[in-house]
Amino acid sequence: MPKRLDLRYRTSAENDSDRANAIFSGAVLVYRSVPAMHELVDCLREITQREVGLSDPCLAESILKSEEFRHRASSARQIVREHGDVARLYKKVLLEAGVDISAVFYDHFKLRFQPSDDASKTRYMRDLPAHRDTWGSNIHAQINWWAPVWPVTADRTIGIFPALWNVPVPNVSAQWSYRELMHRLKGDKSTRYPMLPQCLAPPSLSEAEPIVIHPGDIMAFSGAHLHCSMPNQSGLVRVSTETRTVSAHDLLYSRSAKNVDCGASVSHFDWFHHIETGDSLAHHALGGQTT
Ligand SMILES: [Fe+2]
Questions:
Q1: How far is the CA of 124 from the centre of ligand 1 (A)?
Q2: How far is the CA of 191 from the centre of ligand 1 (A)?
Q3: From ligand 1's centre to the CA of 33, what distance in Å?
Q4: Is 141 helix (H, G, I), strand (E, B) or coil?
Q5: Are 51 and 76 in contact (CB under 8 A)?
């Protein structure tokens, strides 16, 4: 059980097996200055600048009225999610990291804004509390990919709780339901139903280690790592991008993180689609229940 963050830097590609063995034992991998990641950052900056209407969107909360900022940020997020160049470049990034694309399923290509002022915050733009993604997906072979679009600082980035890797944390994963969330959102967009299962007793944020990497870098870590947004009080917006992947090979060879506290009964293979064909992972998964 690593008590300290096992942060490993990579300057060249590595195969899926080596990556999986490192990540599913708790390591956080940082691929440094990936050529395609620089291209992706340029592409995401162009979209963000155009949609937010500022050359430096990190200043948005102090220049724009909060309602206008929220509206423009929502538009940027939607465009990124559907943009052909973003998809093409994300695929190139994974290839340059050594990922076998033929086996990769992903959920979405996301642009995330983390404002510091309360007025700009929404369900999708806020400090995320400590959680494991696997509490929601119940797929323990899930890998998270995260990268800054503009430079980040220790008080305006993602944080990981290394001491809680493989340590059970009381949570509501057994009760949380994605179907219920969708149902509630349909009736009331401001429902308080959580977007993801949460901790019952959140750990102290002092246990979270902030990760500061540079635009052009991308980090990969297990979806089973407990992580959060470092509370942003900087006066600047954090702009980052992320996706989640599952390799069919990892499922086939049972390479995954240990499940120490996820009580979910449903595995959401249907959240993931093949990065080239668009086929659902639910059709490929061996065993497991899907929805
Ligand atoms: Fe997460």
A1: 12
A2: 20
A3: 23
A4: coil
A5: yes
Q: Which residues surround ligand 1, an ion (CB under 5 A)?
A: 133
E strand spans, 187-237: 209-211, 218-222, 227-229
Whether residue 50 contacts residue 79, with contact meaning beta carbons closer than 8 Å, is answered with no
Which CATH fold topology does 7-279 show? Jelly Rolls (2.60.120)
pLDDT at 285: 67
CA distance 95 to 275: 11
Distance CA 109, CA 236 (A): 23
List alpha helices for 176-279, DSSP H. 178-187, 248-252
**From first to last of its 291 residues, what are the pLDDT tens digits of the chain?**
447 899 999 988 899 999 999 999 999 999 999 999 999 999 999 999 999 999 999 999 999 999 999 999 999 999 999 999 999 999 999 999 999 999 999 999 999 999 998 888 888 888 899 999 999 999 999 999 999 999 999 999 999 999 999 999 999 999 999 999 999 988 887 888 888 999 999 999 999 999 999 999 999 999 999 999 999 999 999 999 999 999 999 999 999 999 999 999 999 999 999 999 999 999 886 544 444
Distance from residue 47's CA to the centre of ligand 1 (Å): 23
Ligand 1 centre distance from Cα of residue 241 (Å):
12
Which residue blocks in 64-109 are alpha helix, DSSP H?
66-82, 84-96
44 Cα: distance to centroid of ligand 1 (angstroms): 20
CB atoms near residue 76 (< 10 Å): 20
Distance (Å) from CA 224 to ligand 1 centroid: 9
Distance 50 CA to ligand 1 centre (A): 27
User: Which residues, other chains included, contact 188 with Cβ-Cβ below 8 Å and sequence gap of 6+?
Assistant: none
Give me ligand 1 centre to Cα 132, in Å: 6
Q: Please give the distance, rounded to the nearest whole angstrom, from the Cα atom of residue 249 to the centre of ligand 1.
A: 23
